[in-house]
Amino acid sequence: MCLLAALTGCGALGDVAEEVGKAAGEMADPAVITEDAPFKGSPSEGFADGIAGVEIPEAKAVGRFSAKDVRSAYQVSRRLLEAAYLDEKSLLGGKPEAYARLLDPEQRTFFLKNLDHEDVEKDTRGWVFSFAPGTTELVGDVVKVKGKLSAAPGKDQDVGEMLVVTYEARFVYAVRPAGEKNPVVRVMAYIKARHEFWRDEPGGRLRHWEGEEIDRWSAGTECDSPDRFHRPDFRFEGGDGPAQDAYSDEKAAPIKEGECGTVEEI
Question: Where is the composition biased (Basic and acidic residues) (predicted)?
Fold first, then answer.
């Protein structure tokens, strides 16, 4: 699902952000996003820089999985999130090699076989967050991140007892059109899903799998995408659905089929 940002929260073209009211000593419009301070005035300004925003909680034993297993699972989940949402090559539409390397060999084969598949329903590009190649540049070297991990027992009919790590995170990017200085806008990616961990036999290595997706959406991106790539809403077209708070953890108002949601601020 995509949510477009309302103009008041998404910023404005840099060339109209000239020093209006400078003679009167007025401050610049706080809604304007600048290259020097792309997160200023946004709730994301208080987020940590990069993967440091996904904290690893204290590890405690879960079922038959020891605290050491849980700690290892947390670290794997964090690395997968970093590769899926922060790797620059993948973000700019390149091959997600860093992410693929972290997958279980069996799942890696499936992921690479279906990467950028012509059938959008089979395309695994959506497993990572990527802007359409040649459309977008990152502004600066900081992505603002806030996320959390939790562990719980699980069970699968094929592998038996599992350790399930639920992860939830927001990633906020400052971007501009490729090859252009303006406009600078913010885009958010939200994900809540599970990583599953298990052993094929007692004492064996701890395997992991990209598990069930609970919720996923992006804000500040175009709604009508022909593929699994994301395209920032550089034209400030806005959506036609009810305005929502992209930073709220409360359940959002439902969006009707064919409707493009709107967020108040990114």
Answer: 225-238, 248-259
Domain membership of residue 22 (yes or no) is no
Contact in structure between 14 and 36 (CB atoms under 8 Å): no
What is this structure's pTM? 0.88
> What tens digit of pLDDT does each residue of 85-105 get?
999 999 999 999 999 999 999
Cα-Cα end-to-end distance for the chain: 16
Q: What's the average model confidence in pLDDT over 51-68?
A: 97
Residue type, 183: P
Quote the number of domains for the chain: 1
- The boundaries of the domain holding residue 93 are 2-13+32-263
CB atoms under 10 Å from CB of 111, counted, come to 19
pLDDT surpasses 50 at 16: no
| Closest to 116 measured CA to CA, from 89, 94, 91, 85 | 94
Phi/psi at 75 (5° precision) = -65, -40
Mean pLDDT of the chain: 88
Alpha carbon distance 158, 55 (integer Å): 31
Give the side-chain half-sphere CA count within 13 A for 104. 16
Residue 225 forms part of a structural domain: yes
Q: Measure the CA–CA gap between 15 and 26, rounded to whole angstroms.
A: 18
